[in-house]
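Hey, resending since the last one bounced:
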Amino acid sequence: MTDRRSFLRTMGAGAFCLACGMRRPFAQTAPRRQVSVGGKRVKTIDIHCHCVVPEIADLLKGTRLEARALGTIKSPTNNPPIEQRLAAMDAQGIDVEAMSINAFWYSADRDLARRLIDLQNEKLAQMCKAAPDRFVGFAAVALQFPELAAEQLEQGMKQHGLRGAAIGCTVEGKELSDPMFDPFWAKAEELQALVFMHPQNSDEVTGIAKRVQGFNGALPNVIGNPLETTIALSHMIFEGTFDRFPRLRIAAAHGGGYLPSYVDRSDNGCETLKQCKGPYPKKKPSEYFKQIYVDSLVFSPEALRHLVAVTGASQIMIGTDYGFPWVKNPVDHVLSTPGLSDDDKVAILGGTAAKLLKIDA
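The structure tokens again:
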């Protein structure tokens, strides 16, 4: 197993700077927590972990993406030192992080998008390979060019060992259910890739920016992020994406947004309002949770209990949103939720993620 000292020795001072922002060694902290269920050791896997590649700053210099990229790179939450990341994992009992880079490049032209994605996936893969027992990665893809995104997904998985793709919930105003994205979905289905969906600029793309103005409550994030995910998944259900690609695997951040909490209204919407047109959806919206996975970032045992009741424990994986400090005890959140069997706990803590991401459990 890779500890922090051997990780430093393996990567070396120069290569270590690649690892999502390492700038200085981090002090030795408490021993790594070992998680067990029913007396058996469980490998815990976090599928919702943020990361950036600082080297993109040079590539984006002078482009319209530069300001946003620099803001992301300089943010301590997006770009924590790797020693701090490992220390947090050890304290929380997280064995493996599946890291992703939030998409900000959907307005880039094709040439810049290709170069940017190549650089990010190469550097992310280097970090994962330096500590393969602690990190795996989701490939970045230029989803504004679906055929290119399909190519980047395949290259990321086959050449770099990345385990799927990370995408936003919309692409320059287009819903992910738009048939233009079908080449990407087809490739993701072919590769059996897990596609991690995370919102960005959610107050703007959902149209609620004016309603959530103000500094009290962080409403653009608190309301906007789950709302954007809810809208994206609903379009994919009602407009047939999951029917056209029945083996597609989507993992939605933040517990799948609001959809699991009120999916019964979606089930009844077509019949009551008589607004559904065409052949889709072929099933009740709630049944598509057999294709949709969600993270556990719902904060309370009661919320997690309800999420299990709607989706099933097999569809839930740990998500911490690291390095944003939303949760401190993600493992205890699962262990303390009433009504979960040992099998349920194992599935949420890491069993399902290990299967989807091809991690030795």
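The chain has one domain: 43-357.

Sorry for the duplicate.
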